[in-house]
Design brief:
The protein is an alpha/beta fold. The protein has helices at about 25-30, 40-55, 85-95, 110-115, 115-125, 160-175, 195-210, 225-240, 255-270, 285-290, 295-305, 305-320, 340-345, 355-360, 370-380, and strands spanning about 15-20, 35, 60-65, 80, 100, 130-135, 180-190, 190, 215, 220, 225, 245-250, 255, 275. Helix content is about 40%, strand content about 15%. The strands form four sheets. An eight-stranded mixed β-sheet has the order 1-4-3-2-5-6-7-12, sandwiched between helices. Strands 8-11 form a two-stranded parallel sheet.
Length: about 400
């Protein structure tokens, strides 16, 4: 079961440390300590969970606010508070850690601004290696055939997120020339799984009538199931030769966007073929679309208690039913095709992860079929109105 919001006995201490509960058996099995910055995010939360439950290493979640630790409070973990742009707080949070996983998401400004404080703090705290989670999006949403880790990066792409990641990688590369901290950069593709926006977010869009797939979703989806990404994180930590290198990370199978979205649609009783859309000739997003796609809006929605979110979904569904006209047509929201989605859905290139395979020994442990089963199973657990037809059942 993935991270759920619980508050079982953890409290914020004056020092900024979140009180821990010791587990002697597990402590004896662990040697190194891994700090996970951005531990309340989708990838960060799952990283903390898997490292802790496997006993692979001591893990120290680092979050910006006390309430952000709620999703991990069921574990006996020593956590710290620090803003990703506060060198002093980060240095204290990294103390005693041999490795740092930089999994902070944030907006484009945070992506760039957090790089130097994190690196400087890691150096000051004596951290051996920093694993930075970048993104395959540095190559664009629809990369050219033959793209790999050696392909040139461009900081003037139409998607600002891509540019932020490019600038962040470049700045980190410049900082790491001093040799104070080893750096490994991972570029995962479309990271999906339970709790991800590609799973719950797409389910929300189906329910509220705003879901679409450009050209039926026939384009290549460079998927990377979250547990496979965390496997790559572990390898990036433990393989000595990985220092100073960059790796694309993905799933074994070549899939389409329709393949990724179909299990979700079927579980919710929707016909995927009914949501095909054409890419517009130009993109001028409305203020509603910009708001919906903003990090702040997404964080706000995720912060709402599950019953509230479920109630809002149910209310919206009733509004749609009430909007039926005399011909039975649903008067739902107009479909707004974003430039990012249009490019993604029309991708024709499967990005390679041969370098990670050869140098790290990376092999995706979770198949795409199993990943979809787990994702749909989480939708049922999270209260989505999935069909009781065995899809996603454990």
């Amino acid at each position: 079961m993935l991270c759920q919001k619980e508050t079982d006995g953890h409290a914020l201490a004056r020092s900024g440390r979140i009180a821990q509960r010791r587990c002697s058996r597990r402590d004896q099995a662990m040697t190194n300590t891994v700090a996970v910055l951005g531990a309340n995010g989708f990838i960060g939360c799952r990283t903390v969970e898997l490292l802790y439950l496997s006993g692979w290493a001591n893990v120290r979640p680092i979050v910006r606010r006390p309430d952000a630790f709620a999703s991990l409070s069921r574990f006996a973990i020593d956590a710290m508070l620090a803003d990703a742009r506060d060198i002093q707080a980060l240095t204290a949070a990294f103390a005693g850690c041999q490795y740092v996983v930089h999994a902070v998401a944030g907006d484009t400004r945070t992506i760039v601004d957090a790089i130097e404080p994190v690196y400087r703090a890691a150096a000051a705290a004596g951290v051996l290696r920093l694993v930075y989670l970048s993104s395959a999006s540095v190559h664009g949403q629809s990369p050219a055939p033959g793209t790999d880790e050696m392909s040139a990066l461009h900081g003037d792409q139409p998607i600002e997120y891509n540019n932020a990641k490019v600038h962040a990688e470049r700045h980190l590369g410049q900082l790491s020339r001093d040799g104070a901290v080893q750096v490994v950069v991972l570029r995962p593709g479309i990271v999906f799984g339970p709790r991800s926006s590609w799973t719950g977010g797409f389910a929300d869009e189906l329910i509220n009538g705003s879901a679409y797939l450009v050209d039926g979703g026939r384009g290549v989806c460079n998927s990377a199931y979250v547990d496979n990404v965390i496997q790559a994180i572990k390898l990036a930590i433990e393989v000595p030769e990985a220092s100073g290198r960059t790796y694309l990370i993905g799933d074994r199978e070549e899939i389409s966007w329709a393949d990724l979205c179909r299990p979700i649609a079927e579980a919710l009783g929707f016909d995927l073929t009914a949501i095909s859309a054409s890419a517009p000739l130009s993109f001028a997003p409305s203020w509603k679309q910009r708001l919906k796609e903003s990090q702040g809006y997404r964080r706000l929605v995720r912060s709402l208690p599950r019953p509230v979110r479920s109630g809002l979904k149910a209310g919206f569904a009733e509004w749609q039913k009430a909007g039926q006209n005399a011909t039975g047509t649903i008067m739902g929201p107009a479909i707004l095709v974003s430039q990012e989605r249009a490019l993604l859905h029309q991708c024709r290139t499967k990005l390679p992860w041969r370098k990670a395979e050869h140098e790290l020994g990376y092999q995706p442990a979770v198949s795409f079929e199993e990943a979809c089963r787990r994702s749909v199973g989480w939708l049922t657990f999270a209260g989505y109105p999935t069909c009781r037809n065995g899809v996603g059942e454990r």
